[in-house]
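Let's practice the habit of predicting before peeking. Look at the sequence and jot down your guess about where helices and strands might fall. Then scroll down.
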Amino acid sequence: MIKHAEWLVVGNSKDFPFRIGRTIRLNDNEIAVFRTSENKLYAVENSSPHPKGGPLTEAMVSGHHIYDPLCDWKIDLETGIVQEPDHGQIKTYTIREDGEKVKISL
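Done guessing? Here is the structure:
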């Protein structure tokens, strides 16, 4: 059996400015949402894969990457993979705009 995605409305398009992270809480998930300068939305877990941890919402956005605000690790927003020479991965979520509504699939 194929499970259909559940899309949850997390805000309006205007709630997600360019190159600034926003924290969304859905059930037990804390998610960081970023809009790139190319106007593309990305959603990732809001927890650094660095051993010291920390939130990612304050990360600097560059292209489709973010730079962890505490340890400067470069993380790909599309895959969640930390770029070399560091290593690790964060969970990514599917996000879309439906008219003025922003929706995330868990």
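How did you do? The chain has a mean pLDDT of 92.
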